[in-house]
Amino acid sequence: MEKIKMESIIESLLFVWGEPMSVKMISEALGVESKEVYRVLLDMTEKYESNQRGLIIRRVNKSFQLVSKRENFAYVEQLVRPIKKKKLSQSALEVLAIIAYRQPVTRGEVEGIRGVKSDKVIEGLINKGFVAEKGRSNTIGKPIIFGTTDKFLEYMNMRDLDELPDLDDFIEDFSQLSQWEKNQISIDDMEEMDGDRVSDVKETE
Fold first, then answer.
1. Is 203 left (phi over 0), alpha (psi -120 to 50) or beta?
2. Which of 110, 112, 147, 186 would bridge with 202, disulfide CB 3.0–4.6 Å?
3. What is the DSSP letter of 169?
4. Euclidean distance between CA atoms 121 and 23, whole angstroms
5. Is the peptide bond prior to 20 cis by the omega test (within 30 degrees of 0)?
6. 194-203 per-position pLDDT tens digit
7. Is there a contact between 67 and 58 (Cβ–Cβ < 8 Å)?
8. DSSP letter at 70?
9. How far apart are CA 199 and CA 201, in angstroms?
């Protein structure tokens, strides 16, 4: 298949799909090898950036998404109906930061760092799609381990976890919350569960 034809089809697929689309999905739709599709996607990404278009192709891990340029948000906002936004609670932000920077991590390790029960907060983050179970630890009892998701990367406007900001900025400045708001994320307030203090604080690396 000619490259220009591939680009046309890929552009249509990304536009219709809306969400991040994996290279594998695009490859299967085109009937073309993944490596070739990936090269075309990278080339398209550069073209969108260099041509100063209103849309860009954003990479999210091994997926790609067609999105509007952030610099145009103020103009887009005037057109669309405002969405009611709610910030993450303090406890939810703390747990999300711990999981993001220490993953894969168990609930016990999260509670050891915070010093409070965190099961309900983790459950809330899972329900919102920011956190997911990633398997089980090899330690005694084989507890479930958790990590962040592609949805987390998408809303943070990051390609991968290597682009995580400095931890102090994440916690103290809440800079990523404002970035979430710019992406028009509507997040329900999560139940803040301080609970009883964990008596036996587990040491974590």
1. beta
2. 112
3. I
4. 33
5. no
6. 333 333 333 3
7. yes
8. G
9. 6
Phi/psi for 200 (5° steps) reads -115, 95
The DSSP letter of residue 197 is B
- Number of neighbouring beta carbons within 10 Å of residue 40: 21
> SS3 of 80, please?
coil
Residue type, 84: K
Read off the tokens for 85: 């936004």
Q: CA angle 169-66-69, nearest 5°?
A: 55
Task: For residue range 55-68, list pLDDT tens digits in order.
Answer: 999 988 889 999 98
What residues contact residue 51 under an 8 Å CB cut-off, 6+ apart? Answer: none
95, amino acid identity: V
The pTM assigned to this predicted structure is 0.56
Confidence of residue 53 (pLDDT cuts 50, 70, 90): confident
Six token digits for residue 181: 């708001």
Q: Which residues pair with 101 in a beta bridge?
A: none
Structure-block tokens of residue 72: 């145009």
The residue among 68, 190, 62, 66 whose CA lies nearest residue 130 is 190
